[in-house]
Specification:
Elements lengths: L1 E4 L27 H14 L3 E8 L13 E8 L23 H6 L22 H8 L5
Antiparallel strand pairs: 1-3, 2-3
């Protein structure tokens, strides 16, 4: 995941100093939407084993839609992570919570991946990869 402020959005801040170009003194760059998309697409060309999608972060006020969002994010996902056979069996087996668990009360039985329960049987105690999580949780097509 790579984020950058959307430089197109900066006109909405109304800075007194007309020479100010970045939102914060420690920023090395702030890209327009086109610059960010060009850079991200170049990464995909150089690393064809990845796919990528964009997400807007922070909507602007009504009437500023043409400027885009306040910030922008590109999420790069290795294509092999999109293959369902990659996901560990632990996360695709049926939920085995008892009848008192939140899982049984609210969602019934089903795949652990779709379970809303927070018990230790449903929630993994270790990370299994943010990209895989994002792909499956947000239903991003690869």
């Amino acid at each position: 995941m790579v984020t950058t402020p959307n430089a197109d959005f900066n006109v909405l801040f109304g800075w007194e100093d007309e020479n100010k170009t970045f939102r914060h003194y420690d920023h090395k760059f702030e890209w327009t939407r086109q610059q960010f998309q060009d850079w991200s697409n170049n990464i995909i060309l150089r690393f064809p084993d990845y796919t990528m999608y964009f997400t807007d972060i922070g909507e602007g006020p009504a009437g500023t839609e043409a400027l885009g969002a306040c910030s922008q994010m590109a999420t790069f996902v290795r294509k092999d992570l999109c293959n369902e056979s990659y996901i560990l069996q632990k996360y695709t087996k049926l939920c085995i919570c008892d009848n008192e668990s939140m899982c049984q009360k609210n969602t019934g039985t089903g795949s652990v991946m779709s379970c809303k329960c927070t018990c230790s049987l449903c929630s993994p105690s270790f990370s299994w990869g943010i990209c895989t999580y994002v792909v499956n949780y947000l239903f991003v097509s690869c």
